[in-house]
Amino acid sequence: MMGSRDGGARARARERPRSDPGDSRDLSGRVSVATTTAESYRSERSVGSSASGRGIALLDAFRSCFVPAAEAHARSPETSLSDDFHPSQQLSQSISSQGSSSGSNFERRRSIRGLYGPMHRNSSEKDKDIPGSTKFSLPEIQKATKNFSPNLKIGQGGSGTVYKGQLNDGTLVAVKRAKKNVYDKHMGREFRNEIETLQCIEHLNLVRFHGYLEFGGEQLIIVEYVPNGNLREHLDCVNERLLEFSLRLDIAIDVAHAITYLHTYSDQPVIHRDIKSSNILLTNNCRAKVADFGFAKLAPTDASHVSTQVKGTAGYLDPEYLRTYQLTEKSDVYSFGVLLVELITGRRPIEPRRTIVERVTAKWAMEKFVEGNAIQTLDPNLEATDAINLAVEKMYELALQCLATTKRNRPSMRRCAEILWSIRKDYRELTFGFCANRIYFLRL
Q: Where is the composition biased (Low complexity) (predicted)?
């Protein structure tokens, strides 16, 4: 599949048990659709007793990502190793309750969401921390941004301008200032829609909402400031900020966790509708945070889809959504597949200056993958190794499923996250050895 250059890596892959998550089928079965239910995933874990210990450790490590940061930081150094490889009792109970027939879907979502947040405030602070129009005054924001100084402008889009600011307590924030256009009703709806969405979500890999202000002709949204630019800038090597392959894999997992939370664990399912590299912000240690909820849609829990006007970014749009105007969570899965290709190749989704064959990056990359030449699509700024070759093959297997033309053939975002965890685990074992992989989990 990958040629003689990575024969050693393929041999090691064949030696791994088939029950490995994210490798639930043979590598030759590229087009097969991954299992999308947690029940099927757990049943796969029981196949092959020789692999059960390794599989349980991997699944538990994956689940531990959904424990709030405050709880994780409270662990003592003596217990951090075992805790990072086993879910908390609360998490185990909430996951097992998903399979029971008692209780509504809404109550199950609420019980699991408690594991995510609030991450930055305790129950005694909850009432006074509810975001709203009275949280900030216009003079306070004008002071924080030095009266919206052009020197503090950090971004600009079709709906407004983003400024860096510093509140009175020293907190750095990003202030999104909506365009003042009394004739554009869509801008007002987009502003209110973003606030409605941001108020009901909180996760480590989502930008944190601080509040908003609507006063006179001003419409302002205040969120946390993420200092290291966006993913697209890093893929373009702006200011020589090259992303190593291991960091790209970490970012893919962070984004998968964020979207999994939106689809599955928030009080009401949220469809982002604009997953793209420029909406993925990076912290100083390159942890990803999904931003910009202007196009987000709260999905009804009692319907299979939402009929709505098409919104999104060219190159990332789900073709089935374009054709039917029916928006589902699988539309985000399609966009995530494009993002995976972007992470591997470093290219933008559409590059008009390239030849016809290479102009649409995802189409070109998938054709190369099917031909067995996936490694030819690797970002030329990266040096290929056996571990990278194998990881690229498996990431393309996942991307191919995400990019299926119909939503029923795409995996869930939770399944995507599980598969990527497995890919990263194998990549780190091939690169650093098993001990280094365990040490890495302590950092999470």
A: 88-104
